[in-house]
Batch of 2 targets.
Target 1
Amino acid sequence: MTPDTEARARRLDADDPGHRDLFHVPPASGGGYPDVAYLAGNSLGLQPRATRPELMEELDAWAQLGVEGHLEAARPWLPYHQLLTEPTARLVGALPAETVVMNSLTVNLHLLMVSFYRPSGRRNRIVIEDTAFPSDSYAVRSQAAFHGLDPDTTVVRLSPRPGEDTLRTEDVLSYLDADGDTVALVLLGGVNYLTGELMDIPAITAAGRAAGATVGWDLAHAAGNVPLALHEWDVDFAAWCSYKYLNSGPGALAGVFIHERHLGEPLPRFEGWWSTDPAIRFQMAPVARPLPAADAWQISNPPIFSMAPVRTSLEIFDKVGMAALRARSLRLTGYLEELLDEVTPARPLAVVTPRDPARRGCQLSLRIGRGSAVELASRLRHEHGVIVDAREPDIVRLASVPLYSTYHDCWRAAVALAELVRP
Ligand SMILES: Cc1ncc(COP(=O)(O)O)c(C=O)c1O
């Protein structure tokens, strides 16, 4: 890594600047640059500059209006969640009626499984990936147990082939082909949290549905990272969080997609006063009358101070557009990959993310063959001002987020890795 390549990174940034100016980039506590090279947006996205003023507007409305803010705030709180519906639908390729923002991700997965995991006789299995995020694994196991089933036999964990790091689509398809009649629900991560692999969502959805199963997706690492067309792909349901690529803050509210064909169905569902038709909500009737919309899965009145950051963030996605973001993402991650290919061959480091850009988003995961991933991430931060994240025992994840990451961030990460991990 010569100074020449730093100059190249700077040139690439000048030619392909992204939207870093819209975000607060944390100051560095180590290394030779004032700001961190932030490559952890797959874990927690950076704060948009617009978030604080918008949140302050809502706090001011509360101070000035009290309860009247429900109707009189500049963005009235009563119908506030509807402000998020259309931008969310645009983000994931859905009809507005198919999306709602509410709760957190695992809670939403549970609420969706109340409706969409309906084991019956031999068709009772839930298929996940062996490297599913632990919360999903715990959620599906507890759902199986809730139905009186044995989680160890009900939950099927699909693994990569021996010696491989990522799951092959054809292996998922052949499982569904052979055993699909025992599967009630397929619930996979759209982009795997550990390896960064982008699954073939349309192909797996089609195969699962053809086998008679319901197909849901955890899109925590896909929403805002890769273009999605959930309606067109015929996905049954999906859920995602907003604190990663959607930059809406720690523990931010999550999104839900339910395909139009299910909206009017008499499905089992947990309901509350926010499930009912808003036109009759204050008639205080004892029986809910939900509209045929994902809104019917809402239960409680929404937390406005948590919704405001989601609204601000979605405005950025609307302004920039997923197509432009994906185009920059391909360039930026391609550049990071190129630098890592200079660094890794001589060192105990290997990229485990698929090499085909069509099979990944902006995250590249590295397996380290020596030492601790957590310790490496800590040294990257304290000695070089490079923030990545580590997953025990041996994975370091680097996400070059197209909204705010720079080519120079990628260069800094590669130089730091070259220095800290000796050949
Ligand atoms: C893929 C995936 N699923 C589920 C979760 C859990 O999310 P939450 O704590 O919002 O329920 C995460 C959190 O990082 C995740 O990455």
Target 2
Amino acid sequence: MIEVKPGIYQLQIPIHNNPLGHTNTYLVRDNDGYLLIDAGWDSKEALQAMKDQLSEIGTGLDLITRIIVTHVHGDHYGLVHTLKNYTDAEIIIHRREKEVLMYRYTAVYETLSDIEESWMRNGAPQNELPMPGLPSRDTHRLQTPVIPDSTVEGGEIISAGDYSLQVIWTPGHAPGHICLYEPTSKILFGGDHVLPVITPNISLLPYAGENPLGEFMDSLKTLDGLDVEIVLPAHENIYYDLHKRIAEITHHHHQRNLEIMNTLKEGPKTAYKISSAITWIPESGGIRYKDLPPMHKRMALLETLAHLKAMLVDGEVKSFTEDDIDYYEIS
Ligand SMILES: [Zn+2]
Ligand SMILES: [Zn+2]
């Protein structure tokens, strides 16, 4: 637990079996309790970590009166389910994340079969299917999500103690991802949108919006216009130079577009063939698609599709369908 600014604490909540290690959640002192930003992964270990760190601050779960969740990925929203047993806190998320909860989590099998169909259309070989099965406990939990009490659209001001948090809608990594900006103290709660080292995964999924990468780049531009002195991200370490980081992430995505354009110079390709031809995880020296673990292969293909969608919208590439398989070529 770190007190980042007077009355703003960072809590580190472990994520089971994940290289990210933990989710940073933030507690803001309010007049009659606390506001929590993001909850963490749902596990006994996570709940204990939350309790321990709250007691270091001299408080407890029952004094959390509001929980704002940046987006509904399991490492942010998961623990809300358990926290509801200890507090009557109002749960607040963006309207589009509520829609994701209702669609993806209540129709989990339909979503999986949509994804499977999409693999075939995009030229993935049979042996890379199907999607991994979900353990039954998780499936049950996903099908009975906690329904949020309130939704935001972006632009709202949420006051907590000495701070006024402005909601900024930053779609891309998730369709209803939000950041919170405190203009007086120049603090940005960045969620997964702007992390200091890794670039967040941007996937074209059935519920991810029309052009998630395009939306992500626009959201970066929105943040670039803010006067920020300290970024409190949901993973990795606190950092200070938001504008430099935005430039790096923008460059990363431009490089990937260039790489895709280069592979298309050889002629039309499926998204699967493009994924196989480009370099993945450049921050760790670069890995070929065939050497990625299965889950990462799926993420890589979905990310390629997000790039192709943005390039279609920008008119850089066009697509055609032959025998139920989609191909891309340079416009
Ligand atoms: Zn996320
Ligand atoms: Zn996350």
